[in-house]
Amino acid sequence: MLFHTPEFFVLLVVSLILYYLLPDRRIALLTVANWIFYGVNGPGFLALFLAVSTVTFACALLMRGKYRALFMSVSIGVNALNLCFFKYSLFVLQNLERMLDVPLVREQSLLSSIVLPVGISFYTFELISYTVDVYKGKLAPSRNLLQFWIFVAFFAHLIAGPIMRGHEFLPQIDRLREIRWDAAAFRLGAFYLLLGLCKKMMLADYLTPQVDGFFSATGALTGSEGWVAAYLFAFQIYCDFSAYSDMAVGIAHLFGLRLMANFMTPYLSANATEFWRRWHITLSSWIRDYIYIPLGGSRKGKWLRNVNLFAAMTISGLWHGAQWTFVAWGAYHGLLLILHKGYVSLKSRLGGASGALLDRNIIYRMLSVAVFFHLTCIGWVLFRAQSGLREALKLIGRMVRPEAFLFPPELAPYLWAVAGLFALHVSEFLLMKHLDAVSRAWHRHVPAPVRAAVYVLVVVSVSVFTAGEHNAFIYFQF
Amino acid sequence: MKSLKYVVLLLAIVQIALPYCIPLKYVYSGRMDYEIVKNQVRNLDVVLEKIRLEIRRNHLQDYILLLGDSVMYGSPGDSGQSVTVFMEEAARRTLGEEAPAIFNLAFPAMQLGDLYALLLKLDRYGISTERTIINVRYACFVPREPDPPAVFWLQDDLRSLDRDAYKHIFPQLEQNGYSPPSSVYGQYKHWLEQSAVYRFKPYAYKDYIRKMLQHAWLRVTHQPIPSDAIGDPRPWYVKGDLEPYLNSSTVKQSFTDKPLDLTEENPDIYFLQKIIGHQTGKDTLLVMTGTNHTLMNDYVEKPGYVQNMISLDRYLQSQPIRYVNLEGQIPDRLFSDHTHLTPDGYRELADLIWQSYAALR
Known about the structure:
The complex is a heterodimer of chains A (478) and B (361). Chain A has 19 helices and no strands. With 478 residues, chain A is an all-alpha fold. Chain A has two domains: 6-180, no CATH class; 184-477, no CATH class. Chain B is built from 18 helices and five strands. Chain B has helices at residues 3-21, 24-27, 34-39, 43-57, 70-73, 83-95, 112-125, 155-161, 163-175, 184-194, 201-204, 206-220, 243-246, 249-254, 267-279, 297-300, 303-317, 343-360; strands at residues 64-67, 102-104, 131-136, 283-288, 322-325. In chain B, helix 7 (112-125) packs across helix 8 (155-161) and helix 7 (112-125) runs parallel beside helix 15.
């Protein structure tokens, strides 16, 4: 069930009404709503989720005494196996086939017909982090299965995040009954929900056919076209994924709950380190806490730090999907992070004060943002190219030639569109930075009828400019 | 939350006022917009709503409805060269200011099953079907193998408006790949997406609002408004690319020389009878539009085809409905292909239909 469909809107409205009418029944109500939300994707997916999450719940409760490590291993093993079976088994076998030149997967076999359960990558990460946190004693195990299911499967974040941690969300569910109607939270929720709807239906869905058009012929694209395709995809995936996250955060606010922010206008990042603090924040912090730090983080010297960074980012790439293009994308970002760390240490060695001055220089900042945006776009070519890694690398080869930056006139409309999208991105940054002040001024100085007219205009615009078909969110496939 | 009451009020105003704010020409300009209705058949409801408003606004009483397929629609020319325009001219020449308004609701690929469903929809919209002209062709009655479906566009409408007729024809639709939602959730989702959301007028009118804004933008930027022609309206003999089409299975099937089944076992006869039943006692004219005999000589000279035409003509003449056969009455040079006409051909067709209709009134 997609957030921008009528059936979800009905589910949301009905759930909200009952939620505030029946505060004592909220746990049961949200459980049923979550089951409906997930179950319509296929009852098998729901059954699988319930089985895996119940095992995790039980293992966490049993994680005491000398069997702690055993139950942690069982829980992580079950989750990892579940993810690996559905997401990577075919990929591994197909690669083995290629390496060994031995047929391993038949066309009509069970393996080749596996359908990836919706949201499996997201809920698996939540279940693993919950297991580890309970094992480390950072979190008390949940003693109520329904509450635990709401933590993992709250419909706002089940399918594409934000990836929530136990300590962030379980206490909120514990206090579910105490939540009272809060007009300010409701307004904020409605704002995020509409923001997400606008991004998805009025931007991302319009970019989809353009991007598909370009990438359907990756091999035939010139360097300039490659840049345009990458620019457009950069905004398509941002508008699509951040729209989902905005709507998730907004929906949670409507229920008086708080989900973690997943995006902070990432294309205004000046380097890779900053980018990963602003792009898919809950995934990057998960990778940091449960892969990078356990691998040793930066505690064992620069070289091992770099190796750990590279490994963690490559795994992050693989998490997105069982394709070498995703692995390459993750590795590429690992490399960018390593290069940035090297650049920072070089800068501090050359002169700490001048380095700091440089960082505060607005022109240097803008230049860094522009350069890093292009580096990000090169990464997006790896991520998006459907014709395989080789074609993607060839296209990148054409894109980095100097003549690729001499855009022919027929690409001018696309470049204007990209400029417009970037301007919107900057506007979003300013709006979010000053959200409280803007909100106060909006409610204090703008009369209610004018505010209402703007709200109605937004609703009508979303209705009118919706691209028609309900395109799924890109991150649903992960 | 002070603004909430204003939001509700403004939404109510938008809901009521929007249909009045969209000029008719963007929704209906002598015929429906092919691309918009083809891409979302629910847009037909917007056309009917606007026509109903137009009828009320002008207190129209004796308007005429044209129903049919691509020939009555005026394909492949643009809307300025369609049957509607020429028939209105013909009506004005005969009756002057007394000429009735003419609304063309024909649409390419409409089958007799669609026309029946459309008549039921018109009843629901309160648009009178008292004066109706319907076009049929030989191809309307040929056996289906199983393509095309007996109801091409309006299956959902038929399902809700005449359950028995829907049940009767369902096997034929199913053979053509039509599969209505079967699960409760599927039906609920279908209802939400195809019915409930269209009650919200900005959503229902979205394609036409976008068209209006697009035209406004083109005017502001001094660019031409694109033509709404759906093909090349030049005469067939100047086009050099008709051969593959004429030899296609679709054309071969539509000019079959196998004996026609003129009983209600034939879904088209079944729906024709439904249409006749619906139009009993009303001022209705059934028009058999013609064929390009020069181009289709190989097909129309076959004894089986000739015999079929005779049988069909007799059958239609025997029905309790006014009927005129225009086969062979329009010169072949005025065709743009095997069955569609050039703008001059449509002028000729409009004149002939109007003469027949006026004579029968």
